[in-house]
Fold this sequence. Notes:
Structural class: alpha+beta
Low-confidence stretches: 52-69, 108-120
Oligomer: single chain
Helix content: 10-25%
Shape: globular
Largest sheet: 4 strands, antiparallel
Strand content: 35-45%
Radius of gyration: 27 Å
Strand order of the largest sheet: 1-4-5-6
Amino acid sequence: MISSISWVPKGASKSVPSVADPPSKEEIEEIKKLALLEKSSDVEVEEGNEGMSEEGNEDMSDDDDVTGQGEDVERALGAASALGKGGSSVHDIADGLDELNMDDYDEEDDAIELFGSGIGDTYYPSNELDPYLKDKNDEDSEEIEDIMIKADDAVVVCVHNEDDVNHLLVCIVEDPDGDSNMYVHHEILIPAFPLCTAWLDCPIKGGEKGNFIAVGSMEPEIEIWDLDIIDEVQPSLTLGGIAETKTKKKGKKVKKSVTYKEDSHTGAVLALAWNKGFRNILASGSADKTVKIWDVSTGKCKLTMDHHTDKVQAVAWNHHEHEVLLSGSFDHTVVMRDGRVPSHSGFKWSVAADVERLAWNPHDQHLFVASLENGTVVGFDIRTATSNSSSDSKTFTIHAHDKAVCAISYNPLVPNLLATGSEDKMVKLWDLSNNQPSCIASQNRKAGSVFTVSFSEDSPFLLALAGSKGNLELWDTLSDAAVSKRYGKYARQNKAPAST
């Protein structure tokens, strides 16, 4: 399945991505040690669950603590896989890492035989005439061409799960405004089941801008990966997470205790939103009922908000007032908070079901929509907000789908054009003009239950969508006659050359 999609703005990606450096000797030894510790921990837990021998059962007064670093071991497995070892046992990992022979890496014989036989006796007056060097240069050029991202290419990233393997897929869309062709450029193995993503350009590694993707998962941490590096095995930054896991045995009972990193979420991370106005700021919503504001430049949590009483599955920053944040929860409320007034409890709207997604209207700073688990989409105007808003304050309600509306996306070019995707497998386009919504197109794009939809900023009529079948689909919405008739003028204006 694919649970989340994020477009990368044109020009943000390096034309030729870098290839990750191999792990150092110290990193390899640490990975092997952690893998052995995890194996030992698993054996101890199995023994505790299955019972001890008669001799062991005679004396169970002492507690036996085993500490495991689950998060780090998952990274060890990922590193081993990236190095070509598909197995998951501790021996597979150790053998795979030993194959690198890092101890002797710098001691290989690099001497040149000056007075030898064979090709060493052949002299070429220039490198261009040397067939061995020429072939090598050709191979290098072909490799660079294979990984090059062209200026006109669109880049879209999705998180994919299949057979308990989790990946970030970095996909290239060639000719996105024409007969588009899409392929996977590179993929990144990630340790936990992914749930949400947010692209960001905060220069975590220095410079003016970066090209990163934040990933929320079933774990209580947020991983931030560098999309300009191929074959990377570790994130550039991790926000929160588990510091330590202890397994305690007493008799046949086995208990686990978890210690979290400072200010970490303590449940799955269900929602992420990057702040385009303050590029170092990232918001997250979690199953632990909290909303957190992170400073990715320092890796620290700046603020934790607990205004919800159930899981927080949606967060969204206002496009115009960058301090204003929406959050939506399973407690059937949407809350708006203003970072300029942190002491204010915010404004609240009640809805009829669990909140699935939130989206601000990019063309009007006062309007937003919420999609719900009961198949409806509701619209709001924040100018009518009070501290105790009720469900009667909605500007409209659409009975959009037969099942949960898991995904919504405003068109960045056309005012009041909204895409919705649902567990009923349908993707629909809506005209929300004058708060009188009308459906103008509806398709089953063969993605299964639709979990994510997203219009491209650079090619505004190109809609990416995906869901339970695990296929990333592209819909050129202008190919629909009703869409082309109503909004074709916007497409023509968007392609028109700027006047000089």
